[in-house]
């Protein structure tokens, strides 16, 4: 007997209805199939659920700080996994003082239980009011995942980000700068350090960083911050939270500002005489005043290797005198601004025009287009990184963060330089892993000034370097460039030396912000600090990147030929240090 089409259709419909539970089950399985994705090195998974499961840092306690790396305003690429926000400086539930952080976990398998901290601070010339400049401005330093240089159109990915090497956190501190919250109530670096270690314990607890090795780094006035905070880590005697493993600072103020600026400025001007191009009569007056103020004789005696094994005499602060004849530093600055109206104390090769900077004005004369909003002062940026929306963020604030809540500018940091009071020496001896460096194009805190401060410091049983720390070549690997907007020098870029746990280095063509002007050199220093390479002179490629480090390719041969006949750089040709 044949079935009619109607009966057949009804039978099929009935079968379909009876099979619907199975279909639902199949749909469920289909919708919950495992997701497979090959992870790109140093990048998060594209699938958000995979990324959430992959990261040990994404927890119930940290999810409120998670940043969507694909939604940073004006950044056209994924910056990777990160966390940002405010944390208090103590466990007190009523604590109102909070520091802002931006934390980037690394995908480097060697970075499982270690973290680096970066700070920055910069000041205007001494005749100007001091400015406190903050750290979340990682787009300038070229050690964060992306960079946005002054005068450029858009941010670019950064192949030299230190996140390639280790977990990194950028912290805005002390209270009173950037996005930080609360009223400043400190007067010195010891109090600042106690605030920071209070914050760090909250941070480490939140992200489960207990027993992590901690590497503390920074530049400029971080020459104060880093040693004092590192010393507080040591004093806490608690390696569960404060397991200090190494320190690196560049272009730092670590000693007496008279020694680091006034005493050394005349040799600096002569070293770069053809570039700075000040007239002969000014140079003659400068030299005469340097001699009359005792600066020339001071350098002749104390910037030696080894130095006299005695405490250096303290020179009179020229700003404390009614007669400004010994304030040579500011007179040179003022003269140079006449010769080069766009003179940059941080990088002396700069000339006009001033370049527009998305982070806003730092130096007198910096250019900011009318009605242009500073990047980190935009509400969309603030919301994206969990910053308090509506904050009037400035890269450098004139607020007195050391005035115990007062705006009286005379109430400045009461701490002596860490090279002068034993703080830096304790850090060097404890870590046996301290790096101090300078860019030779830095006018504000030049290389000889840093060395003079070091020569006045005793560590490991001796005072100063016993031999000039310029005998070794600082080598940056030859390498393929990943982005034309984030380039770095390579080859021999400077010199270095090490004694008793302290390595000093100089980079000839870098300015004050050394990781920005010579990111490859800074990257190499961090590799050495982390123990990934033996030292900063070893020939070989980066531990995270490969390339033609032997210099045998055509482009490198051509580059080498262009450099033949030019002398290698040194510091400023004084007392056995230099060319």
TrEMBL record:
PROSITE patterns: CARBOXYPEPT_SER_SER. Residues 1-18 form the signal peptide. Its EC number is 3.4.16.-. Coiled coil: none annotated. Keywords: Carboxypeptidase, Glycoprotein, Hydrolase, Protease, Signal. GO terms for biological process: proteolysis. GO terms for molecular function: serine-type carboxypeptidase activity. Belongs to the peptidase S10 family. This is Carboxypeptidase. It comes from Ramalina farinacea.
